[in-house]
Amino acid sequence: MDSxxxxxxxxxxxxxxxxxxxxxxxxxxxxxxxxxxxxxxxKGLASVKGQMSLLLSYIKDVAVGKYKDYNVLQLTxxxxxxxxxxxxIDLIPDFVPVAGWxxxxxxxxxxxxxxHDELVKYSEWQAKxxxxxGPNVVSGLEKKSGTDLNA
Length: 151
Known about the structure:
mainly alpha; 151 residues
């Protein structure tokens, strides 16, 4: 299945509705982040590891109340993408060799591209926080995540 078809199915399915239940519940957001951390290590998601790391950092900072200048619609899209990845039965179940992760990669790439401006704003905030918090904090989230947000 090609990535365009995967994205269309993602947009038409109930993933955004599912995400709304998380967006209004900080405990569920934190739980989602913890669950998704294991998925970053999966070999099939290696090509979007940096993007996933940034998305999870964003969700976590919103959930704990550190990042307050977020767009709720973009947060909902980001959460929907992560929920899609951690759900074992999605468009192509993860137990299907190779193809099972291809749909997850396509969804994360789509979410990352669609939420680009929001993630740039978040990364700039994150960098500012790092400077304000002192030299012991890792700065440059885009370097840590392995992504270039301005590409």
